[in-house]
Every structure is written in structure tokens, then in C-alpha cells.
Amino acid sequence: MTEQVADDLPACSIERSLQVLGERWTLLVLREVFAGRHRFAEIRATLDIAPNLLSARLKTLVAAGVLEARPYQEPGSRQRHSYHLTPAGWDLRLVLGALQQWGDVHRPRTVGPSSSRRSKSGQSVHVAFVNDDGVEVPTRDVEFVLNKP
Amino acid sequence: MTEQVADDLPACSIERSLQVLGERWTLLVLREVFAGRHRFAEIRATLDIAPNLLSARLKTLVAAGVLEARPYQEPGSRQRHSYHLTPAGWDLRLVLGALQQWGDVHRPRTVGPSSSRRSKSGQSVHVAFVNDDGVEVPTRDVEFVLNKP
């Protein structure tokens, strides 16, 4: 949602994010769209999610401006929608990347990670804190500071 | 959880992470512990969460090795536990930081963010993808690549 959110919403931005994302299925639906699955039937087949639940999650994500619904029509079928990441949706790559990395380290499997993060030039990348010059800062040196109201 | 997780678990590390974290309250409970609130009553007072729900969330986080329960006893009271981040818990700072940053940008409030990310030396920091040399890589240049099984 790029428009301003009303100020009766929670002051904490983690909480505002979780109002849209704080549910296991929601982030798994987004994982599917990132993986190139855009249609209801494709997403449903991979996730094995109940249709009414998937409908509800897609509706929330569209309403929040994370996904965009585009109409399409196959010959002989009714019009349907496919779901595509908006710029706000693309920015969630960092959230998914951070979750993926945490799972790789703290919930590992013997066979190793199923997926890796790479730059387009093939470099291995990871999620980290960086300063304004784009240089990594160790996570243990980072603090969350409350702003003066 | 630093010990190996059984291999009948989901191949996707995002999904394995969400098995522990994929619920709005869970991440908000962790936010409270990061903010220095360690006791049941303190966390409950800030979050306004039902006691049975908070109990269940704390139990999940302790079982997953994200929080450690330490006994304490106030004079005249029964023994209670306070909850502290394990190393796996501290590593979730990146996940919370990524959620915070996304909320600041895509769910903004007119009064601005309630909290900022800073290094101990006072530098402003943000969550980003970096390469193995610790240099930021633009998010749009990052791809998730499936590893060969």
C-alpha cells in the first residue's frame, strides 16, 4: 500500500506489516508468486490450501496493494484473474529472504537448503544490516531505537 | 533450534521458519522480548493478549530454541519464568528489521516511523542483500535459485 495508512493504526511498523502478512499461508502464497506461479489453480496445487482460504488470502494481498489481479480468459472458460507482485510486493523479497536464511541456519535439513539467494551476476548473497554507504554492519551491533514522539 | 531438524519436514526453509514463526502473535511476542520485556505479565500488559494464547506462544518459542526460560522467584510469590533470546532468537533481528522497514515504507503513518535501526556507533542502518564481501546488492538484482536435489 503506497498511499498513507490512517493514523489510528498501530504505531509499530512490525505490527502494521503483520496486519497484512502475519499469517503462515499469506507468506507461503507470496513465495508461490515469487516462484512464478500466478494463477489460482497453480498456487492451490502446490500449497494444498483450501480454496476459500486461498481466495481470502489473495483478496487481503490485493487490498493491501501487495498483489495486483489481472483478468485473463482461456478459450471456453469464464474470465479469471492471475496475481502479480506490485512494487510493494517485490520489496517483500527481503522479508522472505530473511526467513529463508533463518530457516537454513536454525531449522536445517541434512540434505542442505532447497534454494539459495544469488545476484543476477551469479554471486551468492545474504540478508544483512548495512549502513548508508551500503557496507554490512554486524547484526549484533544493531539496535532498534524508539523515535521521540 | 541449532540441532538438525528431521528430514520429513518441508524442503522449503521459509516454510520451516513459518512452522515456528508464522503467526502474528509470535512475532509480536518476540518484538516485546527484543524491547527488553522478559516476564509474562510485562509482555501480556503491552500486547493485550489472552493469557492462554501467550502461554502457548512462549511454549512454542522455547521448544523451538528461540527463547530460553529462566526461573525466578519474587519474595512471597511462587517460582515463575522469564524469557530470554537464544542465539537463534537474536538472529531473528533481521526478520523483524525487514518487517519493520517494509511497514515504514509501504504502511506509513503521517507521523513517521516509531522506531529506527541504528548501529551501536549511531549510524543509520537498513536491511538489504549483500554479497560475500559485505557490499550491498540491489534487491531487484537478487533471485532465489532452486538447488539441484
Record the SSE blueprint.
The structure is a homodimer of 149-residue chains.
Chain A: H1 13-21, H2 24-34, H3 40-47, H4 51-63, E1 67-72, E2 80-85, H5 87-90, H6 93-106, E3 115-119, E4 125-131, E5 136-137, E6 142-146
Antiparallel strand pairs in A: 1-2, 4-5
Q: Quick recap of the structure?
A:
Chain A has 149 residues and is of the alpha+beta class. The first copy, chain A, contains six helices and six strands.
What do you see in this structure?
With 149 residues, chain A is α+β, with helices and mostly antiparallel strands. Chain A has a single domain, classed as Orthogonal Bundle (Arc Repressor Mutant, subunit A). Helix content of chain A is 40%, strand content 21%. Chain A has helices at 13-21, 24-34, 40-47, 51-63, 87-90, 93-106, and strands spanning 67-72, 80-85, 115-119, 125-131, 136-137, 142-146. In chain A, the strands form 2 sheets. Chain A has a two-stranded antiparallel ribbon with strand order 1-2. The longest helix of chain A is centred in the C-terminal third of the chain and has 14 residues, at 93-106. The first copy, chain A, is globular, with a radius of gyration of 18 Å. The mean pLDDT of chain A is 91. At the A-B interface, α1, α2, α6, β3 and β4 of A face α1, α2, α6, β3 and β4 of B. β3 (115-119) of chain A pairs antiparallel with β6 (142-146) of chain B.
